[in-house]
Design goal:
mainly alpha; two-stranded antiparallel sheet; 8 helices; 2 strands; about 0% strand; DUF3667; transmembrane helix
Length: about 240
Amino acid sequence: MNTKSCLNCGHLVSDEFCPHCGQKADTARITPRSLIKNDILGSIWHMEARFFSTLQDIITRPGQTAMDYIAGKRIRYNNFIPLLLVLFSFNVLGLHYYEKFAPPEVLADDSGIKDLLSKYSKAILFVIIPMLAVNAYFLFRRINLNIAEHFIIGTVSLLGILTLFLLDDIVSLIVLWKPVSKIFNIVDRALFAVSVLFPALTYWNAFKSSYTRSGLAWRIIVLYILMVSESAVIGLILYEIF
C-alpha cells in the first residue's frame, strides 16, 4: 500500500482523500491547464450540477430527500439553508422583473397578492418553516423525529414552494406575450396549485411507508387546517402592526 504525506496537514494518506482534513491526495502543482480545467471550470460545473440535482430531488421526491438528508446522506445535496436564501433572492428578482415589464392594468389586477408577498416576504419565509416543524412534530409522533429534523422537512417543503414560485414568475413573464398567453395561463394556475399542495406532497412522500393512507391523509388535512388558522392570526397581527 502506497502512503504519502498530505500536503495540507502532514498526515499519512493511503487513499484518495486525507482521513484527517479531507483534502485530495493527488494535489499537484498548479499549471495553466489545471487552473482552467479543475479550479475554474471544474468548480463551476460541480456547484451547478449539485445545485440543479438538489432542486430536481426536492421537486420530484421532496419527502425522501429530506429523510435522506436527516439520515446523513448529505454529500449529494447543497446545504438547504443557503439554498433557501438563494431561491428567495431569485424570487425577489423575478418579482422585480415581472413588475417592470407587466402593463399597469395587469399589475392592478393582482396588486393585492403581489403587495402582500413583497411586504411580508421575509416574515413568510421565516414563519412557514417553524409552523410546519412544530405542527408536524405533534402530528407525526410515530416517526420519532426531533423538532430540528422536522425543521429540515419544513425547509425542503419551502424550497419546493420557492422553486415553483420562481418557475411561476418565469411563466408570468411569458404570459405577457399575448400569442401564448392562454396556454401559459393554464400552466401558471397549475404551478400555483402544485405550490399550495407541495407541503402535502412532501409529508406524503416522507411518511407514506409509516402510516396507512387514511392515517396519513387526515394528519395532512389537520396540518393544513392548523397552517391556515395560524397564518390568518399572523396576518391579522401584521396588518394591525403595519
